[in-house]
Amino acid sequence: MSELVQILEKTVSGVPTDQTVALEFLKQAATNNFPEFLKQLSVVLASTETVHYVRQAAGLQLKNILVAKEEETKRIFKERWIALPADVRQIVKENVIRTLGTETTRPSIAAQCINAIAGIEFVYEQWLNSIDILMSNVTNPSSTEKLKESSLEALGYMCQDIISPAIEAKANPILTAIVHGMRKEEPSDHVRLAATNAMLNALELIKQNFENPDERNIIMQVICEATQAPNPQIRVTALQCLVKIMSLYYNFMEQYMLKALFPITIEAMKNETDEIALQGIEFWSNVCEEELNLAAEAEEAQEQGIAPQYVSCHYSKGALPHILPILTQTLAKQDEDNENEPAKASAVCVSLLAQCTQDAIVEPILPFITENFGSNNWHYKEAAIMAFGSILEGPSTHILHKLVEQAIMPLIGTLNDAHVAVRDTAVWAIGQIGETCADLVTRPETLQSLIPALFTALNQEPRVAFNACWAISSLAKAAYQVAAEEGTDENGEPATFILSSVFQQMVDELIKTTDRTDAKTANLRIASYEALMELIKNSPQDCYAVVQQTTLIVLKKLEQLLNIEHSLVSASDKAQLRDLQSLLCATLQSLLRKMHKEDVPAISDLIMAILLQVMQRCVGKESGGVVEALVAVTELITVFGNGNAVRKIYGSIQAFLIGRASQLRRFSRQIFPLMDEFMAYLLKILENTTVKRTVKPHALGCFGDIAIALGANFSRYLNTSMDWLVNAASAAQISNPDDIDQIEYVELLREHCIAGFTGIVNALRGQNELALLLPHVQNMVQLIDMVARSGSLSSESLQASACGLIGDLVTSVGQPILPLVETEQILQMLQKCRRSKNSKAKTLAQWTTREINRLKKQV
Length: 859
Fold this sequence. Notes:
Elements: H1 2-11, H2 16-32, H3 34-46, H4 52-64, H5 71-82, H6 86-99, H7 109-121, H8 129-139, H9 145-161, H10 165-169, H11 171-182, H12 189-202, H13 207-211, H14 213-226, H15 232-248, H16 254-270, H17 274-304, H18 315-331, H19 341-357, H20 362-372, H21 378-390, H22 397-413, H23 420-436, H24 438-441, H25 444-457, H26 462-485, H27 503-514, H28 524-537, H29 544-564, H30 571-594, H31 601-618, H32 625-640, H33 645-653, H34 668-671, H35 675-687, H36 695-710, H37 718-731, H38 740-763, H39 767-773, H40 777-789, H41 796-813, H42 818-821, H43 824-834, H44 839-856
């Protein structure tokens, strides 16, 4: 044991050479005699004579050889533990239990080890008495504070991590321990906080207890009492419990709302501590989300001629006059950089309230908007504009039009405000109007002031210009929609629209914005190209000459980039150039979709020459430019309308087909005979160790595109594809949150793995193919969980894609998927995306949540 203690000391010495030697020793010890190594680690962990940091190191090593994130490693660890002699396992379990209450540091590493062991043994219906031991530790009057606290920590971890019928069967003793620890009579804040955290993790587990009125009353009592604890951490966690309960058990809340939940959350919203106020706001946002879901389900039930299973209690409407004044005042607490969490949460809550209460929100919120719209205090002025923009998805068309008619001209005037936050929110609100009131925002008298104001905004701070790009996109869609309603040609395209006279100028201003020296800030360059693409997509017939001219401008820009590429030295300059190439190729795609077939031959050779150069220079490099270039090539094929072009082009650009197999969907019949050859080529790319690492993610994404193209016929490639995708997903780990390059690569890898999984799930939806899919579901959910756990390190776009994959799995697999996707991290990601301003994230998360709720109500 003394030798092991010395080695463990070196793992935390801070000396790299010592750490390397020590970790190698531990690795060899685990290999040479795993049972003895495990026993000795547990002995060191339990030894009160050993210094605390060595005990903690022993516990960490013990935990790390029992748990893993990767499914294959997890399986190996599980089998290795179960294969140990029963007496060895018993010794280790006794030692970790004995460690509880003896540690001098928080949180307890012994609690984590107990969770790790239970996670394996519960699957085999073993060591279930550990729950009873932990409960006894908590409820025994003679137990020390640390013993109670660490035992509750262990229970909390187990509730959070273990998915097994065995732990569900032990819900009663778990709940007994948690309630005992949460009591207001408990003198220790540490114990009470650990119990409240455990309750937060146990709420899904105690469904049957919640259905019992007497038990539910006790649970609600201890949680509500904890929201009044002097310790702010306990209060925040207890409020988090109420937030979660409102999502899980809305239909049981009527008897608690008026006397408990309403006053508790109102008080929380007014609290000066941001964390407490935030949870009060989150509570009412969750109420709104549940009532929106119930409204959608009621509508579906009515269409089917049946009664809905649950009905809304309309808490949001009843609380509206009480919570709205608090929310609007909180909106005005924003800071310069819009980082104040309660203020941001209030904007989301106002938006959800508007969707729930519809016309009812207008009267109580209008005084705040009108009184502060012209305020000299920028906080209140910005808050008034934010409130206005946030309610636009709620009121009926008649009320909405009346509101917007009164506000739009003053709103345009605020684009000249001195404060950046006011201008930023104002231009966002104009974009909201474009999304909701197409006919009003496109009136000539409105556009006369709006267009110059948006052009000015494009030249302001990047955050303002970013929202101006979105407002222009919304305006273009609105104008096209209004024009299309008046009549279109056989291709569904209107002859003209209200923006035709300024279309050229709008294109010019957006192109100028893409060239700003600060265009990388706030994703402005991406936003301006996206706005340009939207403008082209929504262009009528009389703007075709501008489309042709813009095509030549884009081609010229691509030529210029190709000419200067060789003169660039730094990696960052080269990466920036390739990003710009990618955006230009994406813009070219939009332009080609609008081109007339007869006009393409005149420029097709030039387009192909440039795109082939882009692909040749990008392939194998740190860039996705080859992807967008290939899509542009396939747009040419589409314009020509000749499916035979697939085979002709295949030989010359085979090396680049990994960039975007999605284009194969258009020619599924023609390419089916080529698939064996193409798959062989794709696997060759993946196996090639000399190919740059960022090429392979695009190859992985191809599996999903090929699956969609082939449908059920993809089953012959399923196992090979899934092996590659699963291995790649397991490798997509962020080991250093400060390493930007690593984060970007992991993002790319995860995005394409999710794309691959999504295509395969959608291709194999048939009853006959579902059996082939089921063995791979756990691995797909593991990737989703990794994205969710990465939090802000995962982009909104990636989280949206993950939400979409959850929805596809839920609709394909059915009820067996629920325990896998209803984890804390995944549910938080869904909530975040539901409340996002990003339409893709919001739409996918809302759809997925509805599908999950529908399944749950069938149980």
